[in-house]
Amino acid sequence: MTTSTLRRLPVPVCQPPYDDELPERRELPTQGALALQFELPSRLPVEPVVPHLSLVPTIPVEPDDDWAMPRHTPSAELPEPKQWAGRLTQAVVEVIAGGRPAAQLVRWTSLDVYGQLQQAVGRAGRSAASSRMRTSLAAVRSVHVSTPADGVAEVCAVVEQDQRRRAVAMRLEGRDGRWQCTALQVG
Hints:
Nuclear Transport Factor 2, Chain: A; 4-stranded antiparallel beta sheet
């Protein structure tokens, strides 16, 4: 009868080292995948010499605080407001009901309206925690648009959900080539 002896072997380390456990590398940077050490036909070195920042001339630039401000867009350059407002109203109602993330509307709303939507989502999330089932989705029934000025549309929409009707009022302004909701009220 042969007896075999059991041996204990150490378990190899399978995880890569952390960044602070890596050995320090003091290599010269290479250009691309291969280090090129020849001259171009124009006798310029392939690896350019980077001048010290104090030697680079600076060009004075006049600060223009207006570049970050939204630009007014006339109505002629914007889509038809009634159809666009209907889609936005449907999206807003879906956000409030919790069926759509509010982040999808960040481009189409001002910061104030976006904050208002996030607060409405928080309130709806707390009240919907007790009833997880939504009986039906809201649907936009009618949209009425008034244009008091060029690039401005005031919208009143009627939304129906579970035999209940609510009004949604919003102000759309043409900014940076698109309609943007700058005021919102959901009744």
